[in-house]
Amino acid sequence: MSSDFIRERLQDIESKKAEALRWLEESNGRNTLGELPSTEDSIALVKEAYAAGAEEVLAIEIDEYGEGHENTGKLIVKVPLEAPARDRVFRWCAKQAEAQGYEGEVDQGQSHIFVSLD
Fold it and tell me: Where are the domains positioned within the chain?
């Protein structure tokens, strides 16, 4: 995705966004990512991104579904500058893209990657 696409999502004041791990952990089991069945599975996915080396994982375009339940299938992952961690983050993001039938992004020096989970 282009940096303009990501910048527009980050600057959209009408779209709810949050650091993904905190948003999930503070939800008392009510928030999820994409089609994942539980908050615990969603937390595990975000922890995978951080373990790969992501500097930040933002949940964006968060939808509310009543009774305090929220979901999004859209993440923006901040990519580290260091080559080994950067490569691991790109591979993690590509794995998510391929699970949805898309190709992973190629490293062109971008600072963020958009990840669709649904």
Answer: 3-116
Position 98: which residue type? E
| Helix-strand-coil split of the chain, %, nearest 5 | 40, 20, 40
Give the sheet arrangement for strand 18-19, strand by strand: 18-19, 56-60, 74-78, 112-116
- Residue carrying structure tokens 């979901």: 71
For the question of whether the overall pTM of this predicted structure is more than 0.90, the answer is yes
Q: 73, 118 in Cβ contact below 8 A?
A: yes
Q: What is d(CA 101, CA 79) in angstroms, rounded to the nearest whole number?
A: 22
Q: Per residue in 103-113, pLDDT tens?
A: 999 999 999 99
Residues 6+ apart with CB under 8 A from 102: 116
Q: Beta-carbon neighbour count of residue 108 at 10 Å?
A: 6
Distance in angstroms (rounded) separating the CA atoms of residues 37 and 33: 8
